[in-house]
Amino acid sequence: MLRQENNRLLRRSDAELLCIEPWGENSFRVRASLQPDILPNEDFALLPEPDEIPARISINGNRASIMNGKLRCEVFPSGKLGFYNQKGEPLLEEYDRNRFRADDEGFNSALEILPRTFVPITGTDNYKLWVRFEAKDEKLYGMGQYQQPDLELKGCILELAQRNSQASVPFVLSSRGYGLLWNNPAIGKVTFGKNLTEWYSESTKQMDYWITAGDTPAEIEEAYADAAGKVPMMPDYGTGFWQCKLRYQTQEELMGIAREYKRRDLPISVIVIDYFHWPHQGDWCFDPEYWPDPAAMVRELKEMGIELMVSIWPTVERGSVNYEEMKELGYLTRTEAGSRMNQLGNMCFVDMTNPDAREYVWSKIKENYYKYGIKVFWLDEAEPEFTKYEFSHYRYQRGADLEIGNLYPRCYSEMAYKGMSLEGQEDILNLVRCAWAGSQRYGALVWSGDIDSSFRSLRYQLAAGLNMGIAGIPWWTTDIGGFHGGNINDPKFKECLVRWFQFGAFCPVFRLHGDREPHKKPLGTTGGGATPSGAENEVWSYGEEVYKICRKYMRLRESLRPYIADTMKQAHEKGTPVMRTLFYNFPEDMDTWNINDEFCFGDDIIVCPVLYEGQRNRAVYLPKGCRWRNLNTGEIHEGGQTFTSSAPIDVIPVFFREGALTEISFK
Fold it and tell me: What are phi and psi of 128, to 5 degrees?
């Protein structure tokens, strides 16, 4: 039975209740439940319900349609849904292989495959859920960060789960002119197959997705940002150079590095204290033996114009001063059976889905870091990094990991963001190792995790960063040079570092980090001194040739900061990615949809990173409709052509739109 309820279209068929309603301009929220009614709005990815938007609803017997601006949904007699743009062109259609199709196509199927399949999980109110759509001739992008070389996702199977270096952010943009958000934090997977598209959740109470239509990728992205939220304004320090390594072991060492950057007259905006600067995991404070005067440290850094970022982990070990209290209060992640302690160490994770636990952790951060003037935090282990990712084994206050696990990194960012907001801070930014849809509105700057130090890994990061932007996370960065490995004396690694550094200069955030070889020994046997450190990782640590190249790109980045600030304003106001696929800026140039090894940095810059060892030139495509200036040579190129560009070790090809940024050059 079909009926209209205010601006919603409802369909009851046996146990299933289907609800379609406008949710922003040119957009619908689509939910289905086997409960008596649609469950109340969950604060998953979508912001609270927007002002009611009038919808044109037509019901004709067992068939109906609902229209909102450029998007129309048809409900067929079988219950199948089809989505169309304002021109009547099909965008997306559910996959229905039922015996009796009542959509006048004259096609029957004995397969009995329904578009929406709920399978009860015995003993619970939850279901396994499959939602299927017809496969179309389309290109698909977004979905967050996956460690693979594929920018275009058609043909991929993606796990909907968080891991170290994997951030599942389930928004996909199609070349057919729609975007779809899977508004469900359950563990699962999506298959973008040749024969069908299939979304699957391991454990959920109802189906929930959001779909929008637009004439350009930018229009679709901006509608998604309106629905799921936008980043704050990037603080000024965020656009400069960030110095980091695994790990500065003492206050004296860190301050010596900061002073050396200043002595060399190198631009630096942020310096970082990494993990195990604390006595125990879960103490959330400095070990006074190695960090004796945080107030003086922060004061001197600020006098040099450098922000201090400090690593925070959501882990608590038995020896922590907070463990017993947090356990008693129910603030720690639980297990379905067996010990909650993780094999990463004799520790467990804070339950960040619990708002009281979030307030408790922030109170410790405020007392032991924030009061010294530390205003930016590194929220590590944000997935969280359970031993072997046994998602069926863990439980939170808000539900089983299988049902709500993908929310954890967003709740973690919310912990710091809300605490800092209550202190009156604006333009909040925190570095975090994972994200889900909506994390961006909590000031999440996502980095790509503990990745390998190799050219192959560098290639993966280009695809990851571009798809993260499309998935609604415009603040993104990597460990320049990768995290795992990289001997500072190895010529091959030096080449990889140089090419990565050049790429990093055009990422939303420009940050040097890594666990370099050869390692340094621990300074002691207890507290923060018991953990080893990697080798030096400053720009002068790799020899004079590497240093000169790094210095060149640091100064270039510094000269671009006003331009980057304007680009960050677009991200804040409209949700625009900072680094973008070429087709995002030039959708009418069909050749741009086939380019996967270049990117736009803002409106006016095209970056062509060098992604292979030994490469000293590379093919470049410049979009139609304008002329482009080679940053290195000053040469002007007509758009709409492919040519070979020189790329000696100290250069990656970079092109500015003619007439833009004329004062910027390497000269």
Answer: -80, 140
In terms of C-beta distances under 8 Å and separation of at least 24 residues, what long-range contacts does 128-131 make, across chains too? Answer: 128/200, 128/201, 128/202, 128/203, 128/204, 129/184, 129/186, 129/199, 129/200, 129/201, 129/204, 129/207, 130/198, 130/199, 130/200, 131/94, 131/198, 131/199, 131/200, 131/207, 131/209
SS3 47: coil
User: What is the rounded distance in angstroms from the CA atom of residue 464 to the CA atom of residue 479?
Assistant: 13
Confidence of residue 416 (pLDDT cuts 50, 70, 90): very high
Bridge-based pairing state of the strands 241-243 and 510-512 = parallel
Give the SS3 label for residue 1: coil
Closest C-alpha among 74, 104, 85 to residue 178: 85
Taking residue 55's Cβ as centre, other Cβ atoms within 10 Å add up to 21
Q: Which helix (H) or strand (E) holds 465?
A: helix 455-470
Structure token pair of residue 196:
């069908």
| Strand ranges (E), 365-474 | 376-379, 394-396, 399-400, 430-432, 444-447
CA 575 – CA 595 distance, rounded (Å): 23
Residue 362's H or E segment, with its range, is helix 355-368
pLDDT at site 338: 81
Q: Alpha carbon of 552 to those of 210, 555, 557: distances in Å?
A: 45, 5, 9
Taking residues 641-649, report their average pLDDT: 98
Note the pLDDT tens digit of each residue in 581-625. 999 999 999 999 999 999 999 999 999 999 999 999 999 999 999
> Phi and psi (nearest 5°) for 394?
-115, 155
Catalytically active residues are 380, 383, 450
Q: Which of 23, 385, 41, 372 is nearest to 206 (CA)?
A: 41
Token pair in block for residue 49: 């319900």
Task: Answer yes or no: are the C-beta atoms of 627 and 639 closer than 8 Å.
Answer: yes
Q: Which residues make Cβ contacts (< 8 Å) with residue 451, sequence separation at least 6?
A: 147, 165, 457, 460, 461, 478, 479, 482, 483, 484
Contact 226, 24 (CB under 8 A): yes
Q: Has residue 157 got a pLDDT over 90?
A: yes
Q: Please state, as a whole number, how many other Cβ atoms lie within 10 Å of the Cβ of residue 321.
A: 14
**Full-model pTM:** 0.97
| pLDDT for res 421 | 98
Q: What phi and psi, each to the nearest 5 degrees, are found at residue 219?
A: -65, -40
Return the closest-CA partner of residue 408 out of 448, 441, 435: 435
| Rounded-to-integer distance, Cα 416 and Cα 571, Å | 21
550-576 pLDDT, tens digit per residue, is 999 999 999 999 999 999 999 999 999
Count of beta carbons in the 10 Å neighbourhood of residue 139: 15
| % of the chain surpassing 70 pLDDT | 98
**What type of residue is 481?**
G
**Which DSSP helix (H) or strand (E) runs through 477?**
strand 476-477
